[in-house]
Design a protein that fits this description.
Shape: rod-shaped
Helix content: over 70%
Strand content: under 5%
Length: about 750
């Protein structure tokens, strides 16, 4: 009956162990399913992000195309501006050339003035001679008629000369022609003085003089018209220059306003840079503080490691004590076989009390170790938080550095723009100065012109005086001059017609000039609109550049996230592969364990007395490793019941079976450890080992209870001692596994 009960219990334990393994496999399968779902989710997210990235790339391409178009427009506008500047420069050069021509003309007028002064002196001398001749003519009555005619001719010439006084000093040819007319008049006077009786010659000479005067007047009119046209043209140019100067002044004011805005932006950017530098310094101080905290935590970790070493030393001491206890137990067994005396019982009780004290000390040490582990976990959490803070601060520093670099580049661009604007301003100031100098020169020339006119009027007055004196001598020419008047009237009519034609042409030209001015006004308005459009385009370019920078930042962040997700996917795939390998390896180990069980059952029969002991209450994880020991103990118990005399033989068999069991269990444990150790990096192996440690702690509790029961029942000492030895040997092996796993966890955390 006892054998059947023990067999049933073994079957139940096997079933429970199989159920436990099945649950573990189901959990592993669930975790694998969750991992696959996460992998699918991550792949979907990656696809979505790739699509978004494609959209962003297309948007970037469009933005780049627009930017290229805007750049081309800007280049065209710059070329147009350069062409306008070249035109303005050419216009200024033309003005300079015209000013030089005016200067040369003024110099020529000065030379002509000198020539006229010489001519006036000659005329004075001739007038004196004519007065002397007049006195002689007063004595001769036949010469009065010729003098009156001469006076009339001189009056007509004087009137005609007064009509063109304002324009007489402008051209050389006019003065030369007048000089030639005076020469002819002198010749005529000389001829009259030489030949007083020859009236036909005088008439002929007077007609020639009138024709020459008429030609001179016609030429003077042409020259006056040309001079008026030139003056109008110069006035129009001056108006154009004034308009151009006003436009340049407006542009200068706008440029100054833009410079002020740029300076304000520079001040704001400098303030931002100073604030960013202060924030960087604060971040660096925080980093230093965090580094100090990390050093403190490393020191605490070192102290914990020292405590762990002390714990390991204490554990080794406990193991030595347990070995001594085993030796004492063996001695007690030998003494109990020799004789069961009271002294042995008292020593046994003392030894049991020592064992209790050792177990209590061990429990205290375990509690301390657990507390230290909890503290260490808290410290690791704090370290992780500090690392995160350091990373965030580093990211902030990188962002601040990028913003600083961007602002520095903007500042450099603005400085370059300022330099360009300053150069343009200098050029504009130089142009303004040159225009002012030209205007001053023009005013000086006008003053000189007015002075020359005054001198010319003075000379004309002197000429009038001399001509009046001369007219008194030539009154005889009045009759002939009347005939000349008729001719002159006809010529005057022709001249008036020509003047009307010229006035019509002047009106047409003025109309054309007005049209040109209207066209120029339209061009200036178009230039203003183009400038406004240029500014708007520049603002759009700046906004698009800012959008491009922001898009680049988003793309870089998305790419970093994608890389991070790829790494996580790779890690999850590696973990899934490792888990599948672990499952296959564990299945192989289970099969090998079942095969070895069958071989051990065939070689050694199962004793029944072992099931009465301590292993009936052990969990499934412990039974896997100690099934063979239970079977051997049951066989030995049956033999002891039937054959009391064959105790030494049974003890020898038990020892042999114990040695075999320990060797098999050591081999299995070493194989399991060698297979579990390389899997310590995976996320699943740690959880399985923790569950096995919980089951081992339950076995420790059961062992302490059985030790209490064995102290109460000393009659069953040999069997219980044998069972306790086997269980303690298994416990030592499992604790060694615990220690190895704890060391592996510490290595992993230190690597992190």
């Amino acid at each position: 009956m006892l054998g059947l009960q023990s067999h049933n219990e073994d079957l139940e334990k096997d079933k429970t162990s199989q159920n436990y393994l099945g649950k573990g496999m189901e959990q592993v399968a669930k975790k694998l399913g969750v991992a696959h779902e996460e992998i699918q989710r991550l792949t979907d997210e990656l696809q979505v992000k790739e699509k978004e990235q494609c959209k962003l790339d297309s948007a970037l391409k469009k933005a780049q195309l627009e930017i290229d178009k805007l750049k081309e427009n800007l280049v065209k506008q710059k070329e147009n501006d350069a062409a306008d500047l070249q035109k303005a420069k050419e216009h200024n050069q033309r003005l300079d050339e015209e000013i030089l021509a005016l200067r040369n003309r003024v110099r020529s007028l000065d030379s002509e003035k000198k020539v006229l002064g010489e001519m006036v002196e000659r005329l004075k001398g001739e007038v004196c001679e004519s007065q002397d001749n007049k006195q002689l003519e007063d004595h001769s009555p036949g010469k009065t008629v010729g003098g009156e005619q001469r006076e009339q001719i001189l009056k007509m010439s004087h009137e005609k000369n007064e009509m063109f006084e304002s324009e007489w000093s402008k051209e050389r040819e006019r003065e030369k022609q007048l000089a030639s007319g005076l020469d002819t008049a002198e010749k005529a006077l000389k001829a009259e003085s030489e030949y007083p009786s020859s009236g036909d010659k005088l008439k002929y000479n007077q007609q020639g003089e009138v024709q020459q005067l008429h030609q001179n007047l016609h030429r003077l009119q042409i020259l006056c018209n040309s001079a008026e046209n030139e003056l109008r043209y110069e006035r129009g140019k001056n108006l154009d220059l004034k308009q151009h100067n006003s436009l340049l002044q407006e542009e200068n004011i706008k440029i100054k306003i833009e410079l002020k805005h740029a300076q304000q932006k520079l001040l704001e950017s400098t303030k931002m840079c100073s604030s960013l530098t202060a924030e960087c310094k604060q971040c660096q101080q925080k980093i230093k503080e965090l580094e100090l905290e990390v050093l403190k935590q490393t020191q605490s970790i070192k102290s914990q490691n020292n405590l762990q070493e002390k714990l390991a030393q204490e554990k080794s001491k406990v193991a030595d004590a347990e070995e001594k206890i085993l030796d004492l137990q063996r001695k007690l067994e030998h003494a109990h076989k020799v004789c069961l005396t009271d002294t042995c019982i008292s020593e046994k009780q003392q030894l049991e009390e020592k064992i209790k004290v050792a177990t209590e000390n061990e429990a205290k040490v375990k509690q301390q170790y657990q507390e230290e582990q909890q503290k260490r976990k808290l410290l690791y959490q704090n370290i992780d938080e500090l690392h995160r803070q350091v990373r965030t601060l580093q990211d902030k520093e990188n962002l601040l550095e990028m913003t600083c670099s961007q602002q520095q580049s903007r500042i450099q661009q603005q400085e370059a723009l300022l330099k360009q604007l300053q150069n343009e301003k200098r050029k504009y100031d130089e142009d303004v100065k040159s225009n002012q100098e030209l205007s001053e020169k023009l005013s000086k020339l006008q003053q000189e012109k007015e002075a020359l006119r005054e001198e010319y009027l003075r000379l004309l007055k002197l000429l009038n005086v001399h001509v009046r004196n001369y007219n008194e001598k030539h009154q005889q020419h009045k009759i002939k001059l009347q005939k000349v008047k008729y001719r002159l009237t006809n010529e005057v009519e022709l001249r008036d017609k020509r003047i009307n034609e010229f006035e019509d042409e002047i009106g047409i030209l003025q109309h054309k000039i007005e049209k040109e001015k209207a066209i120029q006004d339209q061009i200036t308005a178009q230039n203003d609109t183009l400038l406004l459009e240029k500014r708007k385009l520049q603002e759009q370019v700046i906004e698009q550049e800012q959008l491009i920078h922001s898009n680049k930042w988003t793309i870089s962040s998305i790419q970093s996230r994608v890389l991070y997700m790829d790494k996580e996917n790779k890690q999850l795939q590696e973990n899934s592969l490792r888990l599948t390998q672990q499952i296959g390896f564990l299945e192989r180990i289970i099969r090998s364990i079942h095969i070895r069980r069958g071989e051990n059952l065939k070689e050694f029969p199962v004793p029944k007395w072992w099931h009465r002991g301590k292993l009936a209450s052990l969990p499934a994880t412990k039974k896997r490793k100690e099934i063979y020991s239970t079977e051997v103990c049951t066989c030995n118990n049956a033999e002891l019941q039937h054959e009391d005399e064959s105790v030494p033989k049974a003890t020898e068999k038990w020892k042999h079976s114990e040695q075999m069991e320990t060797t098999i269990s050591d081999i299995l444990e070493s194989e399991v450890v060698n297979e579990i150790l390389p899997l310590s990096n995976s996320s699943f192996s740690g959880k399985g080992l923790v569950e096995s440690f919980v089951s081992l702690q339950e076995t420790d509790d059961i062992k302490s209870k059985e030790a209490m029961a064995s102290s109460k029942s000393p009659e069953k000492s040999p069997e219980n001692l044998v069972c306790s030895q086997n269980s303690e040997a298994g416990y030592i092996n499992v604790t060694s596994l615990k220690e190895t796993h704890g060391i592996q966890e510490q290595d992993q955390k230190s690597e992190l």
